[in-house]
Amino acid sequence: MNIILLGAPGAGKGTQAHAIEKNWRIAPLATGDLLRRITSSETGAEENPLSIELREIMATGALIPDALMIGILEEEIALSKYANGFSLDGFPRTEAQASALEGMLLKNGLRIDAVVLLTIDEKALQARIEGRLFCPSCGASFHSSLNPPKREETCDMCDTRLERRKDDNAETLRKRLEVFHGQTEPILPFYEKQNLLIKIDGMRSIDEVAEDIQQSLLKLDTRS
Predict the structure, then answer these.
(1) What is the pLDDT of residues 148-192, one digit of tens each?
(2) What predicted TM-score, i.e. pTM, was given to this entire model?
(3) Which sequence positions are flagged as catalytic?
(4) How many CA atoms, within 13 angstroms, populate the side-chain half-sphere of residue 34?
(5) Which of 1, 101, 151, 160 could form a disulfide with 85 if both were Cys (CB 3.0 to 4.6 A apart)?
(6) What does the domain layout of the chain look like in residue ranges?
């Protein structure tokens, strides 16, 4: 099963991607993590032509061209860890990207089976954003109060020291919400027309949201 996770920043997409992985053995595919991995100096990326190209684009603050991003995703999903499917977070953000993604998947005999939209209360987002923690090693997500690690600021999965994103602040949140409303929200009708969109209340507890997603996907799997 291949899923797209949509929602404003702080809606809990990363956290729910790992819950979906646990329940369905579907690998999370966060484009931000993917790009960081490709450009990481720890992987010898400085000698990789793709990494050099991406670094140059990112240094200017420009967006990754759609065709390049589609090519990166096509190569990534061919890996064996996505044999059972993926939960895609961070792409697509526009209708043009959604259409290009659909074409690439079709070419590879694949399709999107569900688009999960996590709805949120924007007024409550700042507290959620400022408490977020992530593991730079395995990508696991935590929250200082909503989903704290067993040991303070230490990843439960791999014992790596957890970090906070530098851009998890009120001003960046405001800008991200503007981008979400202006660019990503308009793609919702694209998926609604295909009866793929599943709306989930993302403001409840992590376990409640995960259970709601689980039940929605089970119904979908029964129909397919």
Answers:
(1) 999 999 999 999 999 988 777 778 888 888 888 887 888 999 999
(2) 0.79
(3) 13, 93, 132, 165, 176
(4) 23
(5) 1
(6) 3-131+168-223
